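lol ok so funny story. i was supposed to be doing the assay writeup but got distracted and ended up predicting the structure for this chain instead. priorities right. anyway since i did it might as well share w the group, maybe its usefull for someone
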Amino acid sequence: IFSYITGLIINELYLQTFERLNVDNIKALERIVGVDRKGTKLHDTLLHKEAELRAAGDIWSEHILENAKAYIMTIIYIVVTVTIGYPLISGIADAAGLRDERYYYITRFFDSLIYIWLPQINVMILRIIQGRNKRHRMVGRTVVIGDPCPWVAQSAEAFLSKIFACSYSIAGLNVLSGNPADHLVHRHTHRVVRGSLLVCGRPDGRLTALTTLEASTCLAVNQASSIQSIGGTCESITIGHNKSKLPLSAKAIFLESFRPQFLCEKLLVESEVKSADMSLTATGNLKVTPSAFSEAPEDFREKFATSDKGDSLNASQRLRMLITSGDALNTSQRLKTLITRRGSAQAQATSGNDDGLDSTSHRSSAALIGAYANMEKEARSKASKVGDHNKFDIDAIIEEMIKERKGVDKYRKIFEEIDADGSGELDFDEFVEAYKKINPDVSLPQLEQMFKEADLDGGGTLDFDEFVEMAKLPQVEVLGKLSVKNRDDRGLAQVMPSKERYFGEELRKTAPKGTGAFLMSQSQHLVMELYESRIASMQRFVAMTVMFHQMGSRVQNFFPNISFGYLGYRMDRTHSIMRIATTASPVSGADVRDRMVELLLRHKIQKAVTLFSRKYVEWRNVKYGVNRSRGNTPLSEKSE
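and the output, tada:
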């Protein structure tokens, strides 16, 4: 019903890709939390990401605890100096032999100032020792959580609020959340005067569907980090997959993807290799060292030691295999073991950055937008075979807008031309004959799948509305419409994870001639958006919870340690807004069920009405022998 109403088509290729992403997501989450799916702790060599997140949590816990620590330091100083009768300045003066009465009042005056400003002095001492920002306000902290996926920011806010709900007020904090692509800057960044701590999730901008969203997020973080109070700014941390640190952020935590490249990433790598004209034997600027493979990881040497035919490969052939292999994104360290650069200018022109051929991994979102825009412009130029697309013709734009307004009339005319028998619906033969004239390279099985997906009501023919929905789709979208064949007894799709070296490899191989690869990659935008909203966002949320849990644990354990266990509390015993998860829904399950039954009934009725209408048209044409859709009048009406 949802697919019928919205016109959204989830094909089998999408499901295979998404299933692969789900499988790879488990490994990524294991590295973030430090345990595998069975609860067993990972080997120490695999815990670097969890350790990085917990280290960030330790730093932020020092922000939370600085007032409590300064208070304890103040108590100790007062007790000691009053007990022994020698405040700091007076004690130094006495030790120096300055016991004259005229020095007595001067030393006591400075000692009184120390007592007045002692908490602030202790806070500053702590910040100097810990290497933290010395210009933050000496007050309670405010943590601002941002992420373009609303559920991530809201859930992380609830989680952190829960952890600190039972904390003592001297080590408490305010928690806020916002959308960095929308209102975060305007609603929360003025809180820099309160020593704000900002953590923001970044979408995976290496994907064309998410590049602009990441750029908006990065702009918000930079704006927030540029707002100053007495020369100090908020302390911002970004968490994401694109390995490009923002210049104004205090720290950037990069998550491992463990997924294959999407087609757009693959094309960008190929484009840079092609534009740089990397020649391993002619230029002499890049040299593959003979000992490089002996220093490379064992799994890498085994993979690129021989070809598919079992023949031994030389260094140049191995490097070419690496470039075109479509392996996961982190090939930079392996590539560095293979290549020794000679001539820094040529080397940087060849690789594009210090990360070798993995060109999307360390690019900023702005750089990615520019690169993808250039690739799209080039692809559209080749597809339309029009010269200069940089010059915009106002008359052409107005004409195009008029054409869009007249689109329905245009589709009606085309529909009537294709409808050879004048039945008011297109059968499969009419559809194939018409589409073959547009693109003869499309195979019959592809057309069969396209026809099935376009036939939303399952009637075996396409009515005008179904034809319009199909006609509006770009060619690359149409080519991707492959129906799901494997379903169980309940009608649920059964798919295996994709085994492609990079997502889009199969689509790229089977696409008809003349279909642009970059335009084809745009058909993956739906999967990219699902990946962002379901998988990449989940990894960011889990990373935030690991960091926040470490913050809460450090604060929780601090008070028992200084009070011999008497001032302890449990951060898991709380009444927080997370409790809303168990609150009864304002809409009863019965109402939802009745509504679903009503929608299903409406769908069946609509399908029956469509069937009756089709049969009536067939009966009328048979009885009168006339095609009423052509505007002719039946014989009985003529006689009247």
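The CA atoms of residues 4 and 456 lie 6 Å apart. The chain has a mean pLDDT of 75.
back to the writeup now i swear
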